[in-house]
Structure formats: structure tokens, C-alpha cells
Write a structure and sequence with these properties.
alpha+beta, Glutaredoxin, 4 domains, 4-stranded mixed beta sheet, 12 helices, 34% helix
Length: 492
């Protein structure tokens, strides 16, 4: 044996070096195992109904992505209330699932942005995706993106959040931004319609067109008098405030598009004649009387003729769900009733729904043209509440026992609320944009049910808390006493 190792100082140094080497190797082993575990791991979901895992349908979409997808949740995390914490927890759990399911070649990254604290990051998002991003989730891939208000992620019942529809909405948004296909919307012209190119406050739709373009919709104008049929790339047609009668062949082209080609259409009506559209409405079980809706309550401004609509059907349509949850009314101009046509043929493939109503104190005045003081006349007028807008949907493939989505038609009894002057008032823009989103409703193509939210609470009195604390402290206290007893015994 080397005599140097018999030296006490040398031996002490060797032992100290050995100890530090063991500590270093332990740290390296710990770091290496965590490094490998962070990159090569598997997850097993043992929760009830696999609520912490994506559905196989979402996983299939995510695995087949060819481009990276970014998800940003712009939330107000400055509030320390339990509801805000629960919302952040719901989204954080969902985002981790998408990140885990994505592949390395086209990863999904998700993060939260607090607009009140991360000002620079919020400004970058605003420059990229536009303003009004707070309390929204943005799903983006390349130059395409989709914004979803956080309120749309929850089903609310009696003021409490009931279901979380996060997976359905996020998966449909990923599908939308990753397809690369432009959804084209044609606004008809040639009949005095409102123009998407005009900045005019009363007859311009430039604000509406810009909002649609910001949501990846491609907007163009179309003159049906110059074409034989509706273009094949038309995903939806909009008729906004037409003033002159449509030609018979234009009506035939519209009927063919909606019925045979399962097209989508939205009509914003002015007061007066229906300009030949009544035949199309009849086929879709809808009628609109040439009557002006008035209101003896506080929801009607006699000076401007504007009608504030804040009433909805007992079973609300998805188009207006956000308006109901946020308590936001809609400001219409001169509105006419749009109601079911009881004389239209019975069609089992056709379903009709009202989406927004006038108040119970309203009525539809037939002799509105004469002006002056108007009063409800039971013999000629219609008593409220009355539908201000209707949507009709058809299902195709009924003869084969299949339920294939068919055409859709939405008819509004007012065109003013989408004009530049009114577009950003109250809930006008949300209603105008929601009806377009519903027309395409990608999330309905995904068979993903909402996840029920379960909350658990434990109420304890002060005595219960003290009793529970003593029980939790009992085992550590016994262990501590045993350690002291062993230490004293060994000292003796």
C-alpha cells in the first residue's frame, strides 16, 4: 500500500473528493434521467371517461398536420378569483394534450398571454392578428388564423359553467387553418345592394368585409346578370339591402344553388317588396311581411327608428349564444318581421329556427308608410314578440337513411345593422359574423362531445379543521417521538 494513503490528511482529502464525485455523478444521473424522460415518455390516462386525453378523431387530425400550429390564449390573469383560475386550468390541461399528441415535424405550441403584463407580446399579436384579442383564443398556422372568444368554449346554465367545448372548437380551428383552402363569400350586386367596397356609413359594408377577411374568408362581389350560374367556388352568397327586382333567371340560379347544390345564403332585407325572393323564401318555409316593427317599451327609439333587440327564443340558437351569455343586445334599424310560412309545403328535411326576437311590448305595423302616431291595430297588425331573423337548414340523403348536411338559408329583417355606421355598435358585429361562422360550422363535422365540468367543494367548521389538523399531525408526531427516543437511548 502506498504510504501516502496512510497519511490522515491525504485520506481525508481523498474521502472528500470521493464524496464530491458521488454528488456530481448523482446530479448528472438525475439531470440525464430527466432529460431523457422529457423527450421519451408515455402518458396513461386513468381519469373518468378519459377526460384528460384527446379523442381519437382529434389525434388523427393532429398527427397528419404538415405545418406547425400556434395556439395563444389571451386572458386576463390579473384577477385572483376562482373562476379565472378554473378557466386557466381548463385551457392549460387541454393545451398540454395537443402538444403531446402533435408530431415533431409539425408541432403544436400553446401559451398564455396576459395582455395587461406582457405588453410587448400583446402588441406583436395585435400586429399579426388584429386588435380586440383580449379574452380570445387564437389558432394560427402560417398566414391563416382563427379567433375564438373564450365565452364560446363554455355552456352556461343558470349563470354557472356547465360544459367545456374546448376540444371541439380547437380541433375544428386547427382543421380550418391547416387546410389552406380559402372560403369564398360572394356579395351580390347589380340590384342596388350595399357594397363591400364602399366606406359610406349607411350603404357601405367595408367594415363587415374587413372583419370577414380577418377571419380568413375571401370576399368578392358577384353580378348574377353577367353569369349563367353561381360560380363553382362560391361557398356562400350574401344579398344585402337589394333595391330592385331580381331577373327570373337570377332567381332560378339562386334556387338551383341553394336546393340542388346545397349552397349557403344570407339575406338582409330592406323594407318594401321582396323583389322576387318570396319564391325562394316559400321553398324554405320563411315569409317576411312588409310591416315595420314598433315597440311601446324602452327598446325603440322613435327619433332614429332604431330597434334594440335583446330577446331570444327559449331554446337559443348557437348563432346568438355569445350574445346571451355576454348580455349583449343588437341595434337594428327599420326592422320587419321574418317568420315561418305556415302555408309552405311540408318538408321533413327542412328545419326552421328563429334566432332573435322583438320584445313582448312590440308589434308589426302594417300601415307604417302613412307615418304619424302609430298604434297597434288587432285587425291588421301582428303582436310581439316577433322573429327578426330566421335560419333554415336542409338535410340531404334522407332517402338513403343518411343525415347529410344540405343547404342553409338565413334571412334578417334588417340590413342597417351590418352597415359601417352600425356595424361596431353593441352586438351587431358579433351577430353578423356568427351567422357566417355557423354557415360553415366546422366544429359540427367533428364528433366530439363537450366535457362536463365537475366541481368539488369541502366545507369545514373551525372545529373540524382543528380536528383534521391533529389527525394529520399524529403520525409525524409519533415518528418524531420515536426518533428522539432512539437518539436518547443511543446517547446513553
Amino acid at each position: 500500500m502506498n504510504p501516502r494513503f496512510e497519511d490522515f490528511k491525504v485520506t481525508t482529502r481523498v474521502r472528500r473528493l470521493n464524496l464530491w464525485l458521488q454528488i456530481l455523478l448523482g446530479i448528472l444521473l438525475y439531470a440525464g434521467l430527466n432529460f431523457l424522460a422529457a423527450r421519451h415518455y408515455s402518458r396513461w390516462d386513468v381519469s373518468e371517461n378519459r377526460r384528460n386525453s384527446l379523442s381519437p378523431e382529434s389525434v388523427a387530425y393532429v398527427k397528419n398536420l404538415r405545418e406547425p400550429v400556434e395556439i395563444y390564449a389571451v386572458v386576463s390573469m390579473g384577477r385572483n378569483d376562482a373562476e379565472s383560475a378554473a378557466i386557466v386550468r381548463d385551457f392549460n390541461t387541454l393545451f398540454r394534450q395537443y402538444e403531446y399528441a402533435s408530431n415533431k415535424s409539425a408541432p403544436i405550441t400553446a401559451r398564455f398571454i396576459n395582455a395587461h403584463i406582457e405588453n410587448k407580446r400583446a402588441e406583436e399579436l395585435a400586429a399579426r392578428f388584429g386588435n380586440d384579442l383580449e379574452e380570445c383564443v387564437i389558432v394560427a398556422s402560417g398566414n391563416r388564423f382563427k379567433r375564438i372568444p373564450i365565452l364560446e368554449f363554455y355552456s352556461v346554465e343558470d349563470g354557472a359553467r356547465k360544459d367545456f367545448k374546448g376540444e371541439s372548437l380547437i380541433s375544428s380551428a386547427i382543421l380550418n387553418v391547416s387546410t389552406g383552402k380559402d372560403t369564398k363569400i360572394y356579395f351580390l350586386k347589380g340590384h342596388g345592394e350595399m357594397s363591400i367596397k364602399s366606406p359610406n356609413g349607411s350603404r357601405g359594408l367595408s367594415e363587415y368585409a374587413s372583419a370577414l377577411a380577418a377571419r380568413n374568408y375571401k370576399v368578392e362581389e358577384l353580378d348574377l346578370s353577367e353569369t349563367k350560374d353561381v360560380p363553382e367556388d362560391a361557398d356562400m352568397l350574401v344579398i344585402a339591402g337589394a333595391k330592385s327586382t331580381f331577373l327570373p333567371r337570377e332567381i332560378d340560379a339562386l334556387r338551383k344553388y341553394l336546393l340542388k347544390e346545397n349552397g349557403r345564403g344570407v339575406v338582409f332585407l330592406e323594407m318594401g317588396s321582396l323583389l322576387g325572393l318570396e319564391d325562394i323564401f316559400y321553398e324554405w318555409g320563411i315569409m317576411s311581411d312588409d310591416m315595420l316593427i314598433l315597440d311601446s317599451g324602452g327598446d325603440y327609439e322613435s327619433a332614429s327608428g332604431d330597434l334594440i333587440a335583446r330577446s331570444f327564443p327559449r331554446k337559443p340558437h348557437p348563432i346568438v349564444k355569445y350574445l346571451i351569455d355576454s348580455g349583449t343586445p343588437v341595434q337594428f334599424g327599420s326592422a320587419r318581421p321574418v317568420r315561418p310560412d305556415m302555408g309552405s309545403p311540408i318538408d321533413e328535411t327542412l328545419k326552421i329556427f328563429p334566432i332573435i326576437l322583438s320584445s313582448p311590448t312590440s308589434w308589426a305595423e302594417r300601415s307604417y308608410v302613412r307615418g304619424g302616431l302609430q298604434k297597434y291595430d288587432e285587425s291588421s297588425d301582428l303582436i310581439g314578440p316577433l322573429p327578426l331573423a330566421m335560419v333554415a337548414t336542409r338535410s340531404a340523403g334522407g332517402d338513403l337513411g343518411l343525415n347529410i348536411p344540405g343547404g342553409k338559408l338565413a334571412v334578417f329583417g334588417d340590413e342597417n345593422f351590418i352597415a359601417n355606421k352600425w356595424f361596431n355598435r353593441l352586438g351587431n358585429s358579433k351577430l353578423a359574423l356568427n351567422v357566417v361562422d355557423w354557415m360553415f360550422e366546422e366544429n359540427n363535422m367533428l364528433n366530439i362531445p363537450p366535457r362536463p365540468l365537475k366541481t368539488f367543494s369541502l366545507t369545514l367548521s373551525q372545529g373540524d379543521t382543528i380536528s383534521l389538523a391533529w389527525r394529520f399531525l399524529l403520525v409525524p408526531a409519533v415518528a418524531l417521538l420515536l426518533c428522539i427516543a432512539v437518539f436518547v437511548a443511543r446517547r446513553r
